[in-house]
Write a structure and sequence with these properties.
single chain, mainly alpha, Tetracycline Repressor, domain 2, two-stranded antiparallel ribbon, 75% helix
Length: 813
């Protein structure tokens, strides 16, 4: 017998399905029935088949299939039961025996349960008591934790209140306590059990923060006011210490100057700088102590409080804006008063301002940045540059310009030590270097003119040694290292030390300006301006005095010439003094020594002296009207004018050799003798002299011998020179007159026509002058030539020679 499958359907069911649904489109197909059977066999969900059948409106085929499947299942069950009937019987017997065992077990369990209940009742009571106690303990712990929390919050509030009562010094601690309260309230897992306390704390926390912000802002405002006043004092102290450091460096440099010539130094004068570095380090330490003298605690406190309040960036902006406003108001210091009076306050205020900013930048923990400080400094430098340029352009006094320049240079030195760039400030000072020296030259020109106008050009009398030291040794114009006896009469007038003081002051002012604000090579610039004052001021002023004459006498003109020789030594002192102040070795100065810068005024002074001496000689020569040109006998002691001139020259020489240098005296004497020679020749050429005889020539010869004797006597004064050459030079000054007299006294005057003889004996004579003078000598009557020969029929040879000379000279002319 074949076993039925779940998918098989009885034929009756299939036929009924086919009869009931003639349309194959509406009846389920064999494929659908196969799928249904497979689903039933697999135990799958039949819901989709049911929905589809009902959706089609014909569930009967489905129901029929399901009934057929059920019948098949029943048949299978029946077959299974038949196959396992004995097994079922045995299983039922086992179940029955098991049921009896279960009943016995149930009775045992019931007895055990009753025993357990009777024994567990006390434990349950204890457990209930434990649970109640544990609940109470939890409630107590929660209450204690809440109490401790409240106590802690109240303690923090009390601590904050105590810190607030302590003043601004406790603001930070108060804010820390308030922040702890705020964190507790914000981070608590449960709300505070006391709503009133919570509301109170929530209202107090922002109030405390607002109070702290107000108090610290008020303290910061007070600090801003106080630091402005302190900045001025701080700037003055810092600049004063820079001045002291500069003074110490100058003293060290002065101490090292004597060693400069004994140690190896470069040509630029740079020596051992250890002492200078030590001085600079001392100045830096002093400035550091000055910077530490002002209190930045309120600023730090304000910054810390604002950072605690999470307002750090806002405070930084607030601080920078207020400092900018303060700097702008500091610029207005010079608005109410003249810059000359307020420049120190102006520069000190700015210096103190940036000293404070430097310390805030270094210790403020990021309160300010380098670009912010640099921007403030650039604004301050721009203002200072514009103010100085404006005021410098209107200044007409060198001392005022030097005063401001010196203080500005000290400001630059002070700020350079704090790392601020000061190039623009130094450029402004260097830019007005020429103007400063022009004003200084104008002031010195006025002082020199006043000194020259006040001088009577008499030898200066010094009664005490300090006067000698002050007027002579101080300028190195002594002629000997031996201290003279007092009272001492100097070879110069009071103008010389006065001018030396003026020039020395000029050098010191120039060095001060150049060293601290002029920039560049100090010595080269000072040497340049020294040359200007000597040439444009001293030389020009003396030359103007000499050219104008100003009614100077011979003695005064001689004193002026003597002064110029002393000034030559003074000029060497000026150069050395400038080099010493600039730190340049003296041997470098010796190598670069220049010509005497006052040579024009020196030459003019000598020319004036010669002009006056020649005028005085002319005055005596005008007494030649008393010369007897037709004398019967020659004058035994020479003519009167010659005696007067020689006496005057001897007197003049005795005075001049005490004050005039020997080379100057030598040039003067030679020039005067040459002038006397010219005037003697002019005596013969004078129109008032119509004729002269041999006796007159003999008298002139005697005069010349007197002058030549004077020249020989004067040569003994010049012991430092070859006396023979001096004597020859002085006699050479009289050569023209001597050659003329020799020619007139010669027995053969016509030898003048011989070129060889003329070049040897008469080379200084002009043939035109000889012709004129010979005509006057020829015009004398025959009796006038009796001295040259006896009268006789034969013509006098000298007269014949003279006639020949005159004739030949006429032909030549």
């Amino acid at each position: 017998m074949r076993r039925k499958l779940p998918g098989d359907a009885p034929p009756s069911a299939a036929g009924a399905a086919g009869a009931g649904h003639p349309s194959s489109a509406s009846a389920p197909s064999e494929a659908d029935l196969a799928q249904l059977s497979a689903a039933i066999a697999a135990g799958e969900d039949l819901g989709p088949f049911v929905r589809r059948a009902f959706a089609c409106g014909r569930p009967e085929p489905l129901l029929a299939s399901l009934r057929a499947a059920a019948r098949d299942r029943e048949a299978e069950i029946e077959e299974l039961c038949r196959a396992h009937f004995h097994d079922f019987i045995r299983a039922v017997d086992d179940l029955r025996s098991l049921l009896a065992d279960a009943d016995a077990l149930k009775g045992s369990l019931s007895a055990s349960h009753s025993a357990l209940l009777s024994s567990a009742a006390p434990l349950l009571a204890s457990l209930e008591s434990f649970l109640a106690a544990r609940s109470l303990a939890g409630n107590l712990s929660s209450a204690l934790a809440s109490s401790r929390r409240c106590v802690r919050l109240l303690a923090l509030a009390a601590r904050a209140n105590a810190h607030l009562q302590a003043g601004n010094h406790g603001l930070y601690l108060a804010l820390r306590a308030v922040d702890a309260i705020d964190r507790d309230l914000a981070s608590g897992l449960e709300p505070l059990p006391l709503p009133t306390l919570r509301r109170m704390l929530l209202s107090v926390v922002p109030a405390v923060r607002a109070h702290a912000e107000r108090e610290i802002s008020r303290e910061f405002s007070d600090w801003m006011v106080s630091i402005r006043a302190a900045s001025r004092h701080l700037g003055q102290v810092a600049i004063g210490r820079s001045a002291a450091a500069r003074q110490r460096q100058e003293e060290l440099r002065s101490k090292h100057r004597p060693l400069e010539e004994c140690v190896t130094l470069d040509d630029d004068g740079v020596g051992d700088l250890d002492d200078f570095a030590a001085a600079a380090a001392t100045a830096d330490a002093a400035d550091g102590a000055a910077a530490a003298s002002f209190d930045l605690t309120p600023l730090y406190r304000a910054m810390h409080i604002h950072q605690t309040l999470a307002l750090g960036e806002r405070f930084k902006k607030y601080y920078l804006e207020n400092r900018k406003l303060q700097l702008t108001s500091d610029f207005d210091v010079i608005a109410a008063t003249p810059f000359l009076e307020s420049h120190q306050v102006f520069f000190s205020q700015i210096a103190g301002f940036f000293i404070v900013e430097d310390r805030v930048f270094r210790t403020g923990g990021g309160l300010t940045s380098r670009p912010d400080v640099d921007a403030l400094w650039d604004a301050a430098v721009g203002k200072m540059v514009s103010v100085m340029e404006d005021n410098f352009s209107r200044m007409q006094t060198a001392n005022h310009l030097l005063l401001i320049t010196d203080y500005a240079a000290l400001l630059s030195a002070t700020m350079r030590r704090y790392g601020y760039p000061v190039g623009m400030l130094l450029d402004v000072l260097a830019k007005h270097r020429d103007k400063y020296h022009d004003l200084l030259l104008a002031d010195c020109r006025r002082q020199v003119a006043e000194a020259l106008a006040a001088d009577k050009f008499d030898q200066m009398l010094m009664r005490k040694e300090y006067e000698y030291s002050m007027n002579v040794l101080a300028f190195g114009i002594q002629s000997s290292d031996i201290t003279p006896a007092f009272p001492y009469v100097a070879p110069f007038s009071c103008t010389v030390p006065d001018i030396c003081r003026i020039v020395r002051s000029f050098i010191e002012d120039s060095v001060s300006f150049m060293a601290h604000g002029g920039g560049g090579d100090t010595y080269a610039a000072v040497k340049k301006y020294l040359g200007r004052i000597l040439s444009e001021v001293v030389d020009a002023s003396i030359q103007k005095l000499v050219d104008s004459g100003s009614g100077l006498s011979v003695s005064q003109a001689m004193q002026v010439a003597a002064n110029m020789s002393v000034m030559e030594r003074a000029c060497e002192f000026f150069t050395r003094h400038a080099a010493q102040l600039c730190g340049v070795p003296l041997r470098a100065v010796e190598r670069g020594r220049r010509d005497f810068p006052l040579r024009r005024s020196r030459d003019a002074a000598e020319a004036l002296l010669l002009r006056l001496l020649r005028a005085k000689a002319d005055e005596f020569m005008r007494q030649s009207d008393g010369v007897n040109w037709m004398a019967d006998d020659p004058p035994p002691g020479g003519n009167e004018y010659a005696n007067e001139v020689i006496i005057y020259l001897e007197t003049l020489t005795s005075t001049a050799q005490q004050i005039l240098p020997l080379p100057v005296l030598r040039r003067v004497l030679v020039a005067v003798l040459a002038h006397v020679s010219e005037r003697i020749v002019e005596l013969f050429l004078n129109d008032s002299v119509k004729r002269f005889n041999a006796n007159a020539v003999t008298g002139i010869d005697t005069d010349l011998k007197m002058f030549e004797a004077f020249a020989e006597g004067m040569s003994s004064l010049f012991v430092d020179s070859d006396q023979e050459s001096v004597k020859n030079e002085m006699k050479a000054a009289l050569v023209e007159a001597r050659q003329l007299v020799n020619l007139l006294m010669s027995n053969s005057p016509e030898t003048f026509l011989n070129p060889v003889i003329r070049e040897k004996s008469y080379n200084k004579l002009d043939y035109r002058k000889v012709a004129i003078i010979s005509e006057k000598f020829r015009d004398t009557s025959e009796s006038y030539f009796s001295t040259f020969g006896t009268r006789g029929a034969r013509q006098n040879p000298k007269k014949k020679s003279l006639d020949t000379l005159i004739k030949r000279l006429r032909e030549a002319s």
